[in-house]
Write a structure and sequence with these properties.
This protein has no helices and 26 strands. Helices cover 0% and strands 51% of the residues. The chain has one domain: Neuraminidase (6 Propeller), CATH 2.120.10. A hairpin with a 5-residue loop joins strand 14 and strand 15. Strands 1-26-25-24 form a 4-stranded antiparallel sheet, with no helix packed on it. It has a 4-stranded antiparallel sheet with strand order 2-3-4-5, with no helix packed on it.
């Protein structure tokens, strides 16, 4: 495992990373309320403004970009021609409180975490949104859920519960909702985790403020911890010709670092949304 190297700097609190179908890197600048595209010369170019606090981002197989817009409390869809529209903002009449991160399921459904109300009992939730933009509540009662990732066989969802400084695993039930959470990793030091990714060997990559990058084995045992300059890593994504380059956003320095990994990343689901 090589040490992370600076890829780009000068960003304003990068909070989400994703590659499009043309292998161009996109970054959500949370503080500026915008999505930037990194051009071939390594310079950010404005792609779209969201008007709030964009966090997680993901492309589908039509190269549409979906954004968890926490500040405006909805999901956005940004098409390749840069048209911006609200994709979903409520579930059965209840407004989202603050979408934070998202990923696609194998059937094209969009799964995302919602912060909930921090002033009362934990009300953080996980929702899915189908291709018709209909939202379904999968589970609730979580303490500020943030990053999430599907297992390779899509049988379970792994979620950061930032309010309890831990990572949960939740198995999907036959009806598509989630079984009660099981604690996969409980941390006792450092700031809460932020983002999660698997590699194809089943190792879990975790960004953690005050720690850097933590890598755990398939049983949840810590393998190694790698410092990230600035020490406030947020989002991650895999890229490169062999999908074995890990890109890590860091908030305090407004930078993105890149490092070579031992195994390629697990390919994310992109969903048959173009059918």
């Amino acid at each position: 495992m090589r040490s992370p190297q600076l890829f780009i700097q000068g960003l304003s609190v990068p909070g989400g990373l994703a590659f499009d179908a043309d292998e161009q890197l996109f970054v959500a600048e949370t503080q500026q309320g915008r999505i930037q595209r990194i051009n071939p010369h390594g310079k950010p170019v404005l792609f779209a403004s969201t008007g709030g606090k964009p966090l997680g981002i993901a492309f589908d197989d039509s190269n549409d970009l979906f954004v968890a817009e926490k500040g405006r409390r909805h999901l956005l869809l940004i098409s390749p021609d840069e048209a911006v529209e609200v994709y979903a903002h409520q579930c059965k009449g209840k407004r989202f409180t603050g979408p934070q991160d998202l990923c696609f399921g194998p059937a094209g459904d969009l799964i995302f975490t919602d912060a909930g109300d921090h002033h009362h009992s934990p009300t953080g939730s996980i929702y899915s949104v189908d291709i018709d933009a209909e939202a379904t509540l999968l589970t609730t009662g979580l303490a500020n859920p943030t990053g999430l990732v599907l297992s390779q066989d899509a049988s379970s969802l792994y979620v950061v519960e930032a309010g309890h400084n831990r990572i949960l695993s939740l198995a999907f039930k036959e009806d598509g909702t989630l079984a009660p959470p099981q604690v996969f990793i409980q941390f006792s030091e450092g700031q809460p985790p932020r983002a999660l990714l698997f590699d194809d060997a089943g190792r879990l990559y975790i960004t953690r403020g005050g720690i850097g990058l933590t890598i755990a084995d398939p049983e949840g045992q810590i393998i190694t911890q790698i410092p990230i300059p600035g020490n406030d890593p947020t989002a991650m994504t895999f890229g490169g010709p062999e999908f074995d380059e890990l890109y890590i956003a860091e908030a305090s320095t407004g930078s993105i670092h890149r490092m070579q990994t031992e195994s390629p990343g697990q390919r994310p689901f992109a969903g048959p949304r173009s059918i």
